[in-house]
Structures are given as C-alpha cells and as structure tokens.
Amino acid sequence: MLENISERLQNAIRFITRQAYVSDKEIAEYLREIQRALIMGDVDVKLVSQLTENIKRDLKEAREEYGISIKDRISYLTYKELVKILGGEKKELRIIPNQLNVFVFMGIQGSGKTTTVGKIAHYLRNKNVKVGVIAGDVFRPGAVDQLKQLLKDEIPLYSDVSKKTSIEVIKEGIEWARKLGLNVVLVDTAGRHRSEESLMEEMAQIINEVNPTATILVIDAMIGQQARVQAEAFNKVAKVGYVVVTKMDGSAKGGGALSAIASVGAPIIFIGIGESIDEIEEFDPVKFVSRLLGKPDLESLVKRVQKISKEEMLRAQRMTRGRFTIEEFVQQLESARKMGGIQTILSSLPGGAKLGKKEMEEFFVKVKKWRAIVNSMNKEEREDVTIMDSSRVRRVAKGSGTSEKDVRELIKQYTLAKKAVKKISKGAFRNLPHLRL
Ligand code: GDP
Ligand code: MG
Questions:
Q1: Which pTM does this prediction carry?
Q2: Is the CB of 415 inside a 6 Å radius of any atom of ligand 1?
Q3: CB 3.0 to 4.6 Å from 90: which of 108, 274, 284, 315, for a disulfide?
Q4: Do the beta carbons of residue 137 and residue 189 sit within 8 Å?
Q5: pLDDT by residue (tens digit) across 73-103?
Q6: Is the CB of 111 under 6 A from ligand 1?
Q7: Domains and CATH numbers, the chain
Q8: Planar angle of CA 201, 203, 207, nearest 5 degrees
C-alpha cells in the first residue's frame, strides 16, 4: 500500500538523518523531496505546500529548543503534519447500545459498497455485535447473490426481489431487523443509475424516509484527490456520517483520496485493502503514518518530544502565573541548583549563557547577597521595584550590609529577567538562548 510514496518519504528522512550538520539548505532539499513524494501520491498541491510550510515554520521556532536534535524534530514534525492531513485522531463507528442502529451505504457503482457491507458485517460480528444486512440494491440482479456469498450464512440478510422500489425493501428490512432484535443493520444500496443526478435523488429519498443513524460513504481510492468532489457531492444530498476508502491495496493515489476526504472533514473509519472479506482495516492516521515512514520507533520519539514540550510549557506557565516579583526572582535563582536548570532566567542575565563552573559558584555567592537585599526591602518595594529611588537604595544597602551598587545591580538584573519572562508568556520562549547547568 502506497509503497512508492513510502519509499520516497523514508529516503528523505534517511537523507536528513545522514547529514552531519543540518542547515537551511538540507532542510529545503528535504522538504522538496517530501513535496515530490506527496504530489506523486496525488495529494492536493495546496495541502502539500501547507504541510511543508508548517514544518518549516515549526522548525524555525523550535531551532533553539534543547533536548531534541534537529533531525528528530524534522521526523517528528513530518509525522505530525502527515497525521494532520489524514484527519488527525482516529475516529470510530459509533454504535448506540440497546437499540437498532441503521447505517445506509452510499457511493457510486463499483466503488465497493457491497463488498464493504460484507466486510463490515463480519468485522462487527467478530466483535459480538448483533448485525444484519439489507439488500437495498434492487437494480442489479446479481446484488443479492453477491451479498449471500459475502455473508456466508453467518450474518442474517433481508432481501426481496419481487418488490419494486428500494425504499419499500429497505423499510421492510428495518422492520425485520427490529423484530430480530439486531443492534446494527447495514443497508446496501444501488450505485448504478441513469445519471448521477437520479442516483443522488434516490439517495436523498432513502435518507429522508428511513432516517438512518448515519450514512457511510464508500469511495474508491483510485480516484485520488477527486474524492473531495465526490464526498462533497454526496454530502449535499445526505450528511456523510463516515467514509470508507476502498482499494487502498491497488492504488498509488490512496494518499490523495484520504487527504482529500479528511480535508472535507469527513471521518474515515475503514480502508479496504483487498477483495477478501477480511481485507479491511480500521483507519488510524497515527498508525498509518508510522507505517508510511517506516519508523517503529516513531512512537517513542513522539512521546519524548511531547513530554519535553509539555515540561517547557509548564515551566513557562509556572513562571508567568505569578507576577514574577523580585522575591520570586531570587527564589528561582536559589533553587536553581536543586532544579538542575533555570536556563531562561540565567540566560537572560548578561553573560549568563557563558558561565562556567567557577563562575557559577561566584554567581551563587551573589545570589546570597541578593537574598539579603530582598530581605531588607519593605513589602511595597518588593511589589514594585520601580519606586526604588536613591534614598531607598541607600537604606536597603545599609540594612543588608551590601553596597548601593549591589542593590542597583539586583534591580537591573531582575528587570531584565522580568522582561524575558514576559516574552515567554507571549510565546517567544523558544527563541531564548539556553544555559545548561
Ligand atoms: P459496488 O458496485 O459499489 O457495490 O462495488 P462492489 O462491492 O461490487 O465492488 C466492485 C469491485 O471492487 C469488486 O470486484 C470488488 O471485489 C472490488 N473491491 C471492493 N473493495 C476492494 C478493495 O478494498 N480492494 C480491492 N482490490 N478490490 C476491492
Ligand atoms: Mg453493489
């Protein structure tokens, strides 16, 4: 499935991983290769350029982020963006318990409706759902036989070849399903019509009269990004509840179909991957992309990146939650050793980013002094250091046994740090240089 795209994507990632140093040039080359791979897979050009733009932007923002190498980050962002264009989180068929759920299948002829009805029926039965099928396609003479073969006497089927309209058959079928006490009934419909218009007309009529729990639209992967047009056309007639994309096994355009449908906002729940009854898969964008990128370790990478990002957020939040008074400033510095790093605050100090071990020691001696100074300030001064005029500075220096120069330095450093913290709360956190302690 999508071997070509997969190979190209994996090659691109391998290319970037092999580089000793990743500069803008390599990133540009990498992104071009990703674009080529996706466009080859019939993914809409707009979606593709948006995807690579997002990766570029996030990379720029994250450049300075510590703990994650640029290569890991590129893999992670590629993964993240691919999952996004495929619809994000996994969606599931919702079955309301203790009542009959009616799912009406829609789709043009040959898209794989009847086959998919059979596949989903078995899938549900294997999950111990009481499921049945209604043969609502009264146009095709062989349709009932096709269903009988697919269901293999294992799943109850309602059919009536003597009736004229499919609506009559479907309505009676629903009564039958109710009497049987089924939890789910799948309604196969006809895809062949004189024109697309008359197909849509009949669909609208069925939906109107039957009022199903949801509709399931079946789309052939072969049509690639045209899937968008088709999904939108059906959506006009009857709200598309779920989508199944069939023939993912044989089509190089599957990625195009999936992304096009996801961009309409229709939840893809299954993909068909062959003609046999069990060749259907729950569609999970995360797993799908992991396979596409051939990275079994991707999951752990993702967790690591997310964890680090979360820790950073929390740290920033902790610092910005309070108003960041001079008291808090000194407290943060005091706990720096214990915490193993308060990179941001220290790096906001002039020369902070270059401190070695010896300088660190000197620095902590200074912090002790600052603690004495803060202790000598009154509450009003601690709340707002801008009121510190020269007579207050003199008083505090005296009281703390330090010099006026020391007091002024603390105020200056605190003011700088406060500015940095403000920047953090505006999201500029990533761009600050970091100091490792
Ligand atoms: P319908 O007209 O929409 O009911 O389509 P059918 O269910 O009759 O399927 C049309 C053809 O597509 C049949 O030959 C199926 O075997 C085939 N088909 C359906 N789903 C898949 C799939 O996921 N993979 C492959 N390779 N063939 C499929
Ligand atoms: Mg059919």
A1: 0.72
A2: no
A3: 284
A4: yes
A5: 888 889 999 999 999 989 999 999 999 999 9
A6: yes
A7: 3-85 (1.20.120.140), 101-295 (3.40.50.300), 308-431 (1.10.260.30)
A8: 120
